[in-house]
Write a structure and sequence with these properties.
Layout (H helix, E strand, L loop, with lengths): L1 H19 L3 E3 L2 H17 L1 H7 L1 H6 L4 H16 L3 E3 L2 H22 L6
Antiparallel strand pairs: 1-2
Helix pairs in contact: 1-2, 1-6, 2-5, 5-6
Length: 116
Amino acid sequence: MRLLIVWLINAVALFVLPYVLSGIQIKGFGSAMIAALVLGLVNALIRPILVILTLPVTVLTLGLFIFVINALLFLFVGKLLSGFMVDSFGTALLGSILYSIISWLLASLLLRDRVA
């Protein structure tokens, strides 16, 4: 159940992005759900491989290259799906950062562990 809620939170975060950044377009909430699913799969399967392959560059940049990896994957998903479009690398960089912040805020508000 928690996985479905996180998926919906990520879809809502993606759905909000076009209102914040003009370079990102989403055709509807269904497209946001599909994009959130694909982003989750890409981040789970491809991102770890890229992080390991680019480890020397990541160390040299003190971890800032992870932002580049996230932006490239965000841009890749935008090119892969027809209902989710990202205009440029700069938009993908800013969009991936805002997407992470919005999803984190929503998850922290909605998925608090209730300790009695």
